[in-house]
Design a protein that fits this description.
It contains nine helices and 13 strands. It is α+β, with helices and mostly antiparallel strands and 271 residues long.
Length: 271
């Protein structure tokens, strides 16, 4: 299953705050099926009234949608919806994410974008509990499924560990495997999930519009002595990656509550 990637040189959010608002409203309507594939959008005059914008503003938003292949303008017949094409995707159970990350390394491919040594950013040094003057290896990789990029990964590893593997090995092998081969005994990890917007550089690598929404995951991995051995800053395309969690209702009376169902046999699957 293949999907057409957006050309970042052509695609992008329209200029102007009102045009961007209209673009996002129409995009949401197309994505959620309010405007189904193969149907015509309301006439421009009607949309201007509904959205309380001028014809010029509306057309800027429509130009952006047209550039992304989400609508088609037909002379004398109006504007028609072309639903986003299905993309290969990854789904991960949040409660068993760590073993699934390892599995992901086997089921997807990676492209090394940059590789260097230097001082860590302040936020990374604080999270890993290392000195601001410490040397770390910084690597930026693009992870792909069926040849299509779905995540942008930046990892920081202390120099004394990273020197046990080469740049070429990092480009072809999962980082967890390289860490374990280097003698690291991974014991714990803390991670957080949030959202952000795509910068120009990241948008270009992931085939998205500048400012497109992204799922962000930050993780600190520690060894048996509690030392930080890896910091990961990951950005995922939300249309190609999702986190799932199964819940079970437990307890009795006022103490009844939801708890996650931990299923260690559940593997990350490509759809």
């Amino acid at each position: 299953m293949r999907a057409k990637l957006v050309d970042p040189a052509v695609s992008g959010l329209p200029e102007g705050g009102k045009a961007r608002r209209v673009y996002l409203q129409l995009l949401d309507g197309i994505t959620r099926g309010i405007y189904p594939d193969g149907t015509a959008l309301p006439a421009e005059q009607k949309l201007c009234v509904e959205l309380n914008v001028s014809r010029v503003t509306l057309r800027r938003a429509l130009d952006a949608l047209n550039g992304e292949g989400l609508i088609e303008r037909r002379a004398g017949a109006g504007t028609w919806v072309r639903a986003p094409k299905l993309k290969p995707s990854m789904a991960a159970d949040f409660t068993t994410l760590m073993p699934q990350v390892v599995q992901m390394g086997h089921e997807t491919t990676a492209r090394l974008l940059s590789f260097s040594y230097g001082a860590p950013p302040a936020t990374v040094a604080e999270a890993m509990k290392i000195s601001l003057t410490a040397h770390v290896q910084t690597a930026v990789r693009l992870r792909l499924i069926e040849g299509q990029p779905f995540s942008h990964l930046t990892t920081y590893v202390p120099e004394h560990i990273a020197q046990n593997y080469s740049e070429s090995e990092l480009a072809t092998s999962p980082l967890f495997r390289l860490l374990e081969r280097s003698g690291v005994e991974v014991e714990t990890a803390d991670q957080s999930v949030s959202a952000t917007l795509a910068s120009p550089d990241v948008a270009g690598h992931l085939g998205l519009s500048i400012g497109a929404p992204l799922l962000t995951l930050n993780r600190v991995v520690r060894d048996a002595q509690g030392r930080g051995v890896e910091y990961l800053a990951a950005l995922y395309r939300p249309d190609m990656f999702k986190l799932e969690m199964s819940l079970s209702r437990v307890g009795a009376g006022d103490a009844r509550h939801w708890e996650p169902v931990v299923n260690p046999t559940r593997a990350e699957t490509a759809k």
